[in-house]
Design brief:
- By secondary structure, this protein is an alpha+beta fold.
- It has one domain: Chalcone isomerase, CATH 3.50.70.20.
- A hairpin with a 2-residue loop joins strand 4 and strand 5.
- The longest helix is centred in the N-terminal third of the chain and has 18 residues.
- The radius of gyration is 15 Å and the shape is globular.
- Keywords: Signal.
- This is Cytochrome P460 domain-containing protein.
- It holds the Pfam family Cytochrome_P460.
């Protein structure tokens, strides 16, 4: 039950993140696009189907990926600088009693750098629309669009997801 509540909270956080206005600020540090993240460790997958409260905006397949440093954080509960976690949201077309991966809707990114992102618990947040490294959807709104929800997971390094055994 705890994991399913955390999953719903994580999806809610992504919903807020992706709906945020793309504000820009010259002072706000930008989160880099994580090249080749699909080659990283796959942490978990979930599917938001019709009937879920977030389906209209965030229905689809959610894959979570972590780089090596983030994997250390999942194991210890303390995510070191350089940790990167990606939530890859894909369309989920259903046909012939199956669900397949469709087009990418967005790539949500958390990048740990305690100094650079000090105002948001050491994490930088960004959502790249449809996997386009130039289409930033969060910008300077990270504190309200993302981190405000992640504060609920402070005891787990501000991260909602957990690894499977």
């Amino acid at each position: 039950m705890k994991n399913s509540l955390a999953a719903v909270a994580a999806v809610a956080a992504v919903a807020v993140l992706a709906c945020a206005a793309p504000a820009r600020s010259a002072d706000a540090p930008q989160v880099p696009y994580p090249d080749a993240y699909r080659d990283w460790r796959h942490v978990k997958t979930m599917v938001i189907q019709a009937g879920h409260p977030l389906h209209e905006s965030f229905g689809g397949i959610h894959h979570v990926y972590a780089n090596r440093k983030a994997l250390d954080g999942y194991r210890t509960g303390k995510f070191p600088d350089g940790s990167v976690i990606v939530l890859d949201l894909l369309e989920a077309p259903a046909a012939d009693s199956g669900i397949t991966e469709g087009a990418r809707k967005l790539a949500g990114v958390m990048h740990k750098d305690a100094r650079k992102y000090a105002t948001t618990g050491g994490w930088g947040y960004e959502a790249f629309g449809a996997g386009d490294r130039n289409k930033r959807m969060v910008g300077a709104n990270a504190a309200t669009a993302c981190h405000a929800c992640h504060v609920a997971q402070k005891d787990h390094g501000y991260v909602f997801s957990t690894t499977r055994d």
